[in-house]
Amino acid sequence: MSKIAYQPRKNRRARGFTLIEILVAVTVLGIAALGGIAMIAIGIGRNNSLRTDTTSANVAQTVVEAIASVQAANDTTVNIVDCGANIISINTATAVGGLGAPVVTGAPVYPGIGPGDIDFTAGIVPQYQANYIMCAPNGVRLTYDVRWRIEPVGLPDPATGKYFAKLVTVSAQLPLTANGGGIRYSPPVTLRTVVGN
Prior knowledge:
Radius of gyration: 31 Å
Helix content: 25-40%
Number of domains: 1
Largest sheet: 5 strands, antiparallel
Order of helices and strands: HEEEEEEEEE
């Protein structure tokens, strides 16, 4: 009887990768790397947008604090100074129906604006609008359009006709800017507070 030597079958997988498998793997990794690079670019762009939104909030907060420093019954003008050394007069007067910038009453006018927010598509109301200059790094100056509205809250004092509280709405927006060959839109930031006596 002859002995037959055992010869294991050759496994096709033991031969290694084929050229097509390597090309598919490289293509998949390349697409994943491009997606990662795109996400980094979007993140950098969004970081700049968030910086603008934060600065808009700071500008609006400055005006809110100036108005809130005056009691509701006092209709006076407060002055603040921006980074450009401009003196901005802020009218804090109120009347029945409210005074100041018009607000949105119906459907949103454009993205980021809802009912009760300042309507930047309406005309400017003198003494209730200012161009506020904010200093940015590297000597850059950004000019924000700031508008406010003051509405009475409750009933007036029968003796003086003055209100004990008022609702203050302030919005700040960086107007459309051209940046890197494109136009950047930054929605306005709106802050509200109630000021009392």
